[in-house]
Amino acid sequence: MTETTTGTPKNRAGLTRADYDGAKTTLCPGCGHNAITAGIIQAAFESALEPSRVAKLSGIGCSSKTPAYFLGHSHGFNAVHGRMPSIATGVRVANRELLLIGVSGDGDTASIGLGQFCHLVRRNVPVVYIIENNGVYGLTKGQFSATADIGSTTKGGSVNDLMPIDCCQLAIQLGCAFVARSFSGDQKQLRPLLKAAFAHHGTAVLDVISPCVTFADHEGSTKSYAAVKEHDAPLHDIDFVPFYQDITVDYAPGTTREVQMPDG
Questions:
Q1: Within a domain: residue 99?
Q2: Neighbours of 187 (CB within 10 A)
Q3: pLDDT tens across 80-108, in order?
Q4: pTM of this structure
Q5: What stretch of H or E contains 99?
Q6: Which of 97, 203, 209, 254 lies 20 to 30 Å (CA to CA) from residue 225?
Q7: What is the rounded distance in angstroms from the CA atom of residue 195 to the CA atom of residue 262?
Q8: d(Cα 188, Cα 232) in Å, to the nearest integer?
Q9: CA 101 to CA 160: how far, in whole Å?
Q10: Considering only CA atoms, which of 156, 163, 130 is closest in space to residue 141?
Q11: What is the span of the domain harbouring residue 172?
């Protein structure tokens, strides 16, 4: 990190943390997704990502709104429900120099987009795939999603009796080389995982439990803040130390630029 004469810290790319901000959030106050957004902003700043070399991709749902709230100077595409992996694949084919950050929800990934998720993983498309997982459909009044745990209840008292789909187990079974699960309320764990995912060459699946304060933060919900914190047992400290390599990137015909890229 460097520091300007005004005392504002800058990273290796010469950018301040404010350069990684996006639009003001329109999600519910206290939503776990906002905490994930803050984690992405900080991790991107510390990783010295160049926003112009990042493409943000999403589908439909509360989670899929969040790319608007970080890296406001990056490329972005909001796809239709469950189809973000196809768009990510197309972007990768069109421009291999972009870092792809895909943000999806548990409904967008584990229900309508399950097939797309599976094929993205098995093809090892280089994308940071962040699942903001709250176990409910927040845009349609809190029905159970496919990741809801057996025995979890809705605010109205309905009990889920269906087996959940575990996106991490599925990704591992499909051969994904980077799979992690975190909690939106644990920034100390989340940020190093995000930085490691940014540096990974291939599909990086990061499933983040992200409580819905409107429909899934009550007693009986297994994905409430209280329930997740109660079962959050740190096994070891997580950190990430990147190694950097100098590469030459073609920006225009006859024009090149030396940049540093993390070598994961």
A1: yes
A2: 17
A3: 999 999 999 999 999 999 999 999 999 99
A4: 0.88
A5: strand 99-105
A6: 203
A7: 9
A8: 13
A9: 32
A10: 156
A11: 34-262
- Asked if residue 25 is part of any domain, the answer here is no
Cα–Cα distance for residue pair 62/168, rounded to 1 Å: 21
- 90: its two tokens: 């197309």
The amino acid that residue 184 corresponds to is S
Tokens matching residue 216: 């899934």
Answer whether residue 72 is part of any domain. yes
**What CATH number is associated with residue 215?**
3.40.50.970
Give the Cα separation of 243 and 60 in Å (integer): 35
CA–CA gap between residue 16 and residue 254 (Å, rounded): 30
What total of structural domains would you count in the chain?
A: 1
Residue reference for tokens 């819905």:
212
pLDDT, tens digit (0-9, with 9 covering 90-100), for 206-251: 999 999 999 989 999 999 999 998 887 776 777 787 765 554 444 4
State in Å, rounded, how far the first CA of the chain is from the last one. Answer: 20
Type of residue at 110 = A
Output b/e per residue, 23-42; b: 16+ Cβ within 10 A: eebebbeebbbbbbbbbbbb
Q: Could you tell me if residue 79 is inside a domain? A: yes
**Using CA atoms, how far apart are residues 210 and 55, in angstroms rounded to an integer?**
23
CA distance 112 to 263: 34
Q: For residue 245, what are the contacts with CB-CB under 8 A and spacing of at least 6?
A: 260, 261, 263
CA–CA dist 54, 236 (Å, integer): 31
The answer to whether 164 touches 150, Cβ cutoff 8 Å, is yes
